[in-house]
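Long-time lurker, first post.

We've been arguing in lab meeting about whether 2-oxoglutaric acid would sit comfortably in this protein at all. Half the group thinks yes, half thinks no, and nobody has a model to point at. So I'm putting the question to the forum: if I give you the sequence and the SMILES, can you give me back a predicted structure of the complex? Inputs are below. Any interpretation is welcome too.
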Amino acid sequence: MRRMRKVARESQHMSSVVHRVDLQEQFTRDGYVVIRELISPDELAPLLAESERLLARRDLIDINNLRCRWQGHCETGECRFDGFDPITDLSPPIERMARDSRVMGILQAILGEPACLFKDKLIYKPPGASGYGLHQDYIAWSDFPTSFVSLVMPLDVASVESGCTIVYPGRHHEGCLSTADGDYHQLPMSCVDESTAVSLELEPGDIAVFSGFLPHRSDANRSDRWRRQLYFSYNALSDGGDRRLDHQRVFLGWLKEKYSQFDRPETYFD
Ligand SMILES: O=C(O)CCC(=O)C(=O)O
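Top reply:
Settle the argument with this. Predicted structure of the protein with 2-oxoglutaric acid, as tokens:
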């Protein structure tokens, strides 16, 4: 009996070693990986409840609050609330999931070393919400981590119809594809070959992880359902350590300055 247990443990260990090697290989080659059925429905339930609780926080959802993201309706252009960035400081269950041991294990397998949470957001993408233009998450700031990766965790079905994230495998190898001037740049569609696009169609419970250098975008949500996704971004421990709060301070300063340039000096963070 004891021997059987030992063999079972060893084969489990072997398969997790192989799995880890596969993950790193795939990630290095394609710039992204998809892992199915990592999170159970029971674990997702509190995250869904949190997304609903926070949507009712009308004190937070304000056009001048830098934590809030907005998107136009794909047909009417109406500007509507799209998400919270950051999110983990508002929700202990979401914070726990961002630091879940399975999540951290997968990131360690991909990065080859422990990961540190760098940034986090929740995008609601209600029906009709426009998509996000082609871009890379990496921003050419002097200390922005080159090891930056984002983990996508859907709370609803993310399909082509509901405007799932679309990635362009292998293009992370080319590094920063825009002018490295420290500004956010949308990339022209001529930058990618659309025939190579991969739609990250995910069920709740699945996750995807992609490199900060991987060009990606999304289409509008043309379904009649929400497409809520958590985005947790990380850097490798050796690439600056725990920098979440420092980055948040710099990012909010940068955002405030951008809004001021567009005659919006009244912004604040709450
Ligand atoms: O999944 C999406 O809709 C894209 C969101 C995105 O690319 C981003 O927030 O950087």
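For your lab meeting: The longest strand covers residues 115-123. Strands lie at 32-35, 68-72, 79-84, 115-123, 149-154, 165-167, 198-199, 207-211, 216-218, 229-236. Whichever side wins, do check it experimentally.
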